[in-house]
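Q&A log
Question type: sequence-to-structure
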Amino acid sequence: MERFVKEWLLDPTVGKLIAAVIGLVVIIAVVRLFQRSLTRYVKDSDTRYRLRKFVTIIGYLAGILILAIIFSDRLGRLTVAFGVAGAGIAFALQEVIASIAGWVAVALGRFYRTGDRIQLGGIKGDVIDIGLLRTTLMECGDWVKGDLYNGRIVRIANSFVFKEPVFNYSADFPFLWDEIVVPVKYGSDRRMAKEIFHRVLNEVVGEYAVYAQNAWKEIVKKYMIEAAKVEPSVTLMANENWMEFNLRYVVDYKERRAKKDAIFDRVIEEFDKTNGRVTLASVSMDIGSVGTAPFGVKIMD
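Response status: OK
Response body:
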């Protein structure tokens, strides 16, 4: 037994395996030490995240380099075996390979980055991590109305960037066009209503127009797209029930719900100041004047 142990310890392959394990353990320890130091000394979350990712990638590369150096004399012998097994491995791990290819596409093609709000694989949310195989989102919407977090963290395979459209709400143009439809009762002063809408829009979201205009100029330089109107606008359309005012404006993609609430609040305040000259419309029915068909109720024992 003792002789067997000595021969096993003197085997060059065993020595290389031990060296490889020691090298990988050292690399893992160093990477974790650096990551803990970053958490302690780097306060900005975005910078800290990127540095942690960079340290992790350096650790992977160092591990691969150490393994290649230790087993360099055996790589030639393994070439044939890798070639035979390659086809089977590629078929069995095709989803994994597609996800790694998706990670490369995201990194090089700038599909999205951490902090962006995207819709991927039918899920909408903010990107909080981009891994080698999966992208992690903090989900928005679903049972929660508006663009608010619902608390679920979703991990989506990177391969979806090849299978479905990738909607990015904040990449080159971090603004969205939004619209509000306000019904105004017939007989109201429509010119006063329009003035109120313009004044409220400029007060609540007017500042975004300046930033959006500058951002759109960069879009025009980068893509084949025409100039767009980013200033708030108000249009009128009449139907059989009321005058319908459409309020269109640009807003920061994370402030859409809050600004819509502020606009409605200010519009109602301004309408109240008009002493009835401008009022909101609503559907109402006078049953007494219209009349209803007779009906009976039968109670069963």
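Response note: The chain is about 50% helix and 20% strand.
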